[in-house]
Amino acid sequence: MAFDLALWLNQIVFFVGLAAIVIISGLLLSAFLLVSLSLYSIRKGKPVVPGFLTAGLVALEGLSKALFRLFGLEDREVLTFFIQIHNIMNTKAFEAVPVSDRAIFLPQCLRSAKCPAFLTPEGLKCRSCGNCEIGRIREVFESLGYRWFIVPGSSFIKRMVKQYRPKAIIGVGCLTEVKEGLEMADKLGLVAMGVVNLKEGCVETIVDWDEVFSVALLGLDRSSVPVSLITKDREKERSVSGE
Predict the structure, then answer these.
(1) CA-CA 20 to 30 A from 18: which of 4, 172, 237, 242?
(2) Segment 199-228, tens digit of pLDDT
């Protein structure tokens, strides 16, 4: 029987097209399921199957964002949700890391416009001038045993991670910076927790320091923590639980 090249090519095109339809349909179905679970989680205030949501939001980010917009959800809400489930997924692993193997990175925008800090190879060095909260906060972090940095730029974090090799980090910053930092930490094999600024901008931004401390205290022996900080943390826990 003669070999029919045209028929053979038509069959290949048919199967390739069929496979493409199946893959696209699978991606759309997965994205729709991902968005549905995310919307349900946002309404409930608690992520459902966070492992699936985290992996899905990373793998199908573009398609998911389009569907989120279709359902009336803004990018900011999506990024906030991504950071929330990322923190939940990393909490136990973060608690298991000794504080000596942790580092915290603060954005330079938290400092005062009158800040006299000078730039060094290890970031901005706080001079405890009293113009902002960082000087007081620095003392608390140091008493806990944290290595801490005021970040002058995104490439700085990679350099400090390479130099000091922490196993877990806390990143503070604006929404997009925290999201990108968490993704970078995942690629570097670090356990990372993110805290988003309450007020964003280029200078004199604001962060909820109680939230930063709540993350920093995870897994630590409370007997080693300053009493004032424990009190502040307990008061926050009571307010959240409604006691």
Answers:
(1) 4
(2) 877 788 889 998 998 899 999 876 666 655
